[in-house]
Design a protein that fits this description.
Alpha-Beta Plaits, repeat, RBD_domain_sf, alpha+beta
Length: about 200
């Protein structure tokens, strides 16, 4: 029997993990952010806005350590919040830029993951680690077939839903991933029945 744990590393390094930092003083600089977060990784991407920032780590463990240790930190007299950033808020195909003369621009995640489509070939994934996001789940399930839609922890924590383009992919996913060890948790995978 193949060791299912060996696939876990495929979920991480290329995609990274984004952390939201809120409650920053208005005069926070990029070097301030580097000073705070360099303890958790020397190199990371940063998007600094007024009063908040997004930090992109290469590995989830670095993001997890930063969240665990920095959330609630007092920085220049202000308590900052540090938490794992959420993915796209909607399944919209396009994001619009302001103004009347701007055409819709396809969201970058659509280019990578495709236009989402909810089909009747759905599975429910239970006992999902909170470190797994919808992108991870979709990438993993591609081993079973063409994935058209995925979500994780949206309706219930530790649960996800994945849609396939056909019944064969759905059944193969149940066969492959039920009782699959992912991030130290045994997945429970079953057909999803809408009520």
């Amino acid at each position: 029997m193949k060791d299912r744990r060996r696939d876990e590393h495929l979920l991480r390094p290329y995609r990274g993990c984004r952390v939201y930092v809120g409650g920053l003083p208005t005069d926070t600089s990029r070097s301030d952010i580097r000073d705070i977060f360099s303890k958790y990784r020397d190199r990371f991407d940063m998007k600094l806005k007024t009063r908040f920032a997004f930090i992109e780590f290469d590995y989830h463990r670095d993001a997890d350590h930063a969240v665990d240790n920095l959330d609630g930190l007092t920085f220049r007299g202000r308590r900052i919040s540090v938490e794992v950033a959420r993915g796209p808020r909607t399944a919209d195909k396009y994001r619009f830029k302001g103004g009347l003369n701007h055409e819709p621009v396809q969201a970058t995640w659509v280019k990578r993951y495709g236009t989402p489509e909810i089909t009747k070939y759905k599975i429910l994934v239970k006992n999902l680690s909170t470190r797994i996001e919808w992108q991870d789940l979709k990438d993993l399930m591609k081993k079973a077939g063409t994935v058209t839609y995925a979500l994780a922890h949206k309706n219930n924590m530790h649960e996800g839903m994945v849609c396939f383009s056909n019944e064969e992919g759905m059944l193969k996913a149940i066969d492959i991933f039920n009782d699959y060890d992912l991030c130290g948790r045994k997945l429970i995978v079953e057909e999803y029945y809408s009520t």
